[in-house]
Design brief:
single chain, 276 residues, mainly alpha
């Protein structure tokens, strides 16, 4: 019975993470909220759990954007033989993705442990959710006209810096990058595509850094089934959550996520104060 409950709990945590990963409300922040207020502990290695659910989200992104990824790869290679408008656009899109990855990679390597030690708190999440809400509210009515071929190196650097800020729990990665892109006048479709294609290298990098932790996870064998269920739950939830978010973006309804953050952020801080 205990093993069954553990498996169900990991499945629910995977679903929860997958649901919140694509949408701009911070999956890491919400996982902290669930752990704190619902007294939910992650048995085994947190690094193993995080790797599995994030990899599941990555696979969902790869599935949904498979045609874009295939086109970018093909045209990125063709660029060295044929430099036309299409190949140049896609090659530069790849370059901008690489550039935008660098800030978060450097800051993560240098300061991730410090962030985890000092900023992974409920109060931080409550405050940063409100900050996320304000950012989403500010760009809620912006309808940029710049597309894939209009991106610049400055755009890539600004979006990359925004992604690095999202290392703080409660600051949504997708929210930060989409806000930065739309604030630069980039249209919603391109902003969304760039944000989630940018998730691929940062997610792969995190996976590589977590390999040693997983190999040293003494609970890997005993928690195999719960880990698998968390992975499946995250994959399914991430896929449908991202599809839903794409529809929300197309309708220009980011304000609802801002309102959600305005409500949940203060409630989290208030609840913490009452409990302490």
């Amino acid at each position: 019975m205990e093993q069954l409950w553990l498996t169900i709990k990991f499945l629910l945590l995977g679903l929860f993470q997958g649901l919140t990963e694509p949408i701009p409300i911070s999956s890491s922040g919400h996982l902290l909220i669930a752990q704190y207020f619902l007294d939910v502990e992650i048995e085994g290695s947190v690094s193993t759990f995080a790797l599995l659910v994030n990899t599941a989200s990555l696979i969902a992104v790869l599935i949904i954007y498979r045609e874009d990824i295939q086109r970018l790869i093909v045209n990125g290679v063709r660029f060295f033989k044929v430099k036309d408008e299409e190949t140049t656009r896609d090659f530069m899109f790849i370059v901008y993705l690489v550039v935008a990855t660098i800030p978060a990679a450097i800051i993560g390597l240098l300061f991730q442990d410090t962030i985890d030690d000092y900023l992974s708190t409920i109060v931080t999440v409550g405050v940063t959710l409100v900050i996320t809400g304000f950012a989403l509210w500010l760009i809620r009515d912006i309808h940029g006209k710049r597309k894939d071929g209009n991106l610049t190196m400055k755009d890539a650097i600004i979006i990359g810096l925004a992604q690095s800020v999202a290392l703080i729990p409660g600051i949504s990665r997708s929210g930060a990058t989409i806000v930065a892109a739309m604030a630069r006048g980039i249209n919603q479709e391109t902003a969304l595509r760039f944000s989630f294609l940018l998730f691929i290298p940062i997610s792969l990098g995190g996976a590589v850094l977590s390999i040693s932790d997983i190999l040293n996870d003494d609970n890997l064998a005993t928690l195999a089934v719960p880990y698998i269920m968390a992975f499946i739950g995250s994959l399914i939830a991430s896929y449908f959550s991202l599809k839903w978010f794409m529809n929300i973006m197309a309708k220009g309804q980011l304000k609802y996520f801002a309102i959600y953050c305005f409500i949940v952020g203060p409630l989290v801080v208030l609840a913490w104060l009452l409990l302490n």
